[in-house]
Amino acid sequence: MIKFPKQSKPRIAIDFDMVVCNKDQNLIEDAQESLIELHRKWYVIIFTARTDHKQVKQWLQEHDCRFDEITNIKPNNIAFWVDDHGIRFENWKQTLEDIKRLDSEYQCMKSLTNSKKR
């Protein structure tokens, strides 16, 4: 994990893959500008499952993306998470409805992807 000096700004965690960087290693639309804007007020933590943080740091710097820290360990004291796989929890009834709806969309996308591979 790359550590940076202590921060006084509120902390926001942003997933790297499919939020900042797409599967083709290109910048997601508006990600760079959004990270610059967020970095003015927030301590930006880039969260990734990747273990090579130096490669992630280099990619972010090459794309002029502002951040304070990179980690693959769930950070503490986070005000907000930005993630492509998140489900907003309000209550369990709504959460289960969201999961069912998203699962239906996921199954549809999965079947389209599988049909393209044939």
Explain the overall architecture:
It contains three helices and four strands. The radius of gyration is 16 Å and the shape is globular. The longest helix is centred in the last third of the chain and has 26 residues, at 92-117. With 118 residues, it is of the alpha/beta class. The protein is 40% helix and 14% strand. Strands 3-2-1-4 form a four-stranded parallel beta sheet. It has two domains: 1-86, Rossmann fold; 88-118.
Brief write-up:
With 118 residues, this protein is of the alpha/beta class. The protein is built from three helices and four strands, in the order E-H-E-H-E-E-H. It has two domains: 1-86, Rossmann fold; 88-118.
Which stretches are low in confidence, meaning pLDDT under 50 for 5 or more residues running?
none
- What name is given to the CATH topology of the largest domain? Rossmann fold
Query: Kindly, what is the distance between the CA atoms of the first and last residues, rounded to a whole number of angstroms?
Result: 40 Å
Percent helix = 25-40%
Structural shape: globular
Q: Roughly what fraction of the amino acids lie in strands? A: 5-15%
Compressed to H and E, one letter per element, the order equals EHEHEEH
Q: Provide the CATH top-level class of the largest domain.
A: Alpha Beta
Give the rounded overall mean pLDDT.
Answer: 89
